[in-house]
Design goal:
The protein is α/β, with parallel strands linked by helices. The protein has four helices and five strands; from the N terminus they run βαβαβαβαβ. It binds adenosine-5'-triphosphate and magnesium ion.
Length: 153
């Protein structure tokens, strides 16, 4: 039923639980597992007191440095995820995908492009306001994607 499974991982506990489910499902169905980690793009904050369109030059280099750190951190998240799956289930065909952009739309686009049959993700991730059942990424993916989705709490 499921031949290709995409699991979205951001290093959070719910996403690690999602990874475990995705790996078990891959074993059960003999499915190929794609692990996707999206490096979020640093967004330039607005500085109301600096005037429109004026951004201190130092800020750009700060942003580059921050983006580089984010790249390295998310790359490690992907490597750890691949290693964990391979250790637990050496028989699974597992492939890692590291992309950069907005996590929700990147997950949906990757699912389409890779032609997966199932998306597995956590209900919440690393960020934000607790108390809500779903984070903004899982909410957007559930809203906009037509594929079956397993949201793991
Ligand atoms: N950068 C990412 N790369 C891959 N998957 C992600 C990424 N961010 C979130 N996800 C997936 O989405 C799930 C839900 O995370 P989400 O971002 O919706 O919650 P949150 O971080 O708690 O809230 P918010 O991002 O709105 O502050 C995660 O468990 C993970 O499966
Ligand atoms: Mg998030």
């Amino acid at each position: 039923m499921f031949r290709k499974i995409l699991v979205a991982v951001d290093g959070s506990e719910p996403s690690n639980r999602a990874l475990k489910y995705a790996a078990e499902f891959s074993v059960k169905w003999g499915a190929e597992l794609k692990i996707l980690v999206v490096i979020p793009k640093v967004i330039l904050p607005a500085f109301p007191n600096e005037g429109i369109g004026t951004v201190p030059a130092t800020l750009y280099s700060e942003m580059d440095r921050y983006q580089d750190r984010a790249r390295a951190a998310y790359k490690k998240v992907l490597e750890d995820a691949i290693r964990a799956v391979k250790e637990a289930h050496p028989e699974i065909r597992v492939d890692g995908l590291l992309k950069e952009g907005r996590p929700s739309s990147t997950i949906v686009e990757t699912a389409e492009k890779e032609g997966v049959d199932l998306i597995v993700m956590g209900s919440r991730g690393l960020g934000g306001i607790m108390g809500w059942v779903l984070g903004s990424t899982s909410r957007r993916v559930v809203d906009s994607c037509t594929k079956p989705i397993l949201v793991v709490k």
